[in-house]
Design goal:
Elements: E1 9-13, H1 17-27, E2 32-38, E3 51-58, E4 61-67, E5 79-84, H2 87-99, E6 103-104, E7 109-111, E8 117-122, H3 123-130, H4 134-144, H5 152-160
Parallel strand pairs: 1-4, 5-8
Antiparallel strand pairs: 2-3, 3-4, 6-7, 7-8
Helix pairs in contact: 3-4, 4-5
Length: about 170
C-alpha cells in the first residue's frame, strides 16, 4: 500500500468503522477506503477475525477507524470541517450526514450516525466573519448563531446589512 502517512487522524468507533469509512467515501470527493485489517486474536470488545482497523481518506485527509468498542464516545471536541462553495454543496453534505441517521446541531454543525461531528461551513460564512469589515462580521456572526444548517443567502444578506435574502434552516 505504500509508505504510511506520518500523521493520521485516528477515530474510535464502537463497532462499525468500515461502515463509516464506506459512507464517507461515497459522500465526499477525494475520499476512499483503503485497507481493512482484521484482529489477529480476541480483544476486549471483539473476536479474532473481526474488523479492527480501517484505513480511509476523507477529502484527502488520511484516517484510521478503530473498532475499539463502547468505552469512548465521540464528542464535538473533534470534528471534520468541510468548506462548501454554495448552498447546493452545503445542502448535499448536510443532508447526506443528517439523512443517514445523523443529527442536526447549531451553527453549521451536525453529527453522523456514528457520533462523529461535522462542520458544514460555506466559504461565504468564513470569509464574512473573518473579513476586515468588523460590523459586517458581527452581523454575520449573529445570523450564524440562529442557524442549524447554514443559509448562504441569509449570511450574504447579513454581510450586506439587509434582513432579506434567506431563511433560517433550523
Amino acid at each position: 500500500m505504500g509508505t504510511p502517512a506520518k500523521n493520521t487522524v485516528c477515530i474510535w468507533y464502537d463497532n462499525d468503522a468500515e461502515g463509516a469509512a464506506r459512507f464517507y467515501a461515497a459522500t465526499f470527493p477525494d475520499s476512499f477506503v483503503g485497507a481493512v485489517h482484521r484482529a489477529p486474536g480476541d480483544y476486549p470488545s471483539g473476536r479474532e477475525g473481526d474488523v479492527l482497523v480501517v484505513e480511509f481518506t476523507v477529502m484527502g485527509i488520511p484516517c484510521i477507524g478503530l473498532n475499539g468498542g463502547p468505552a469512548f464516545k465521540q464528542c464535538e471536541a473533534f470534528s471534520f470541517q468541510i468548506a462548501t462553495v454554495d448552498q447546493d454543496e452545503t445542502d448535499r453534505y448536510w443532508n447526506a450526514i443528517v439523512g443517514n441517521g445523523g443529527q442536526e446541531s447549531e451553527c453549521g454543525w451536525c453529527k453522523d450516525k456514528w457520533g462523529v461531528s461535522w462542520q458544514i461551513t460555506p466559504v461565504a460564512l468564513t470569509q464574512a466573519y473573518t473579513g476586515a469589515d468588523r460590523a459586517a462580521a458581527k452581523r454575520v456572526f449573529a445570523a450564524m448563531l440562529t442557524m442549524g444548517k447554514i443559509d448562504v443567502a441569509a449570511i450574504e444578506a447579513a454581510r450586506r446589512g439587509s434582513s432579506n435574502g434567506g431563511t433560517s434552516s433550523l
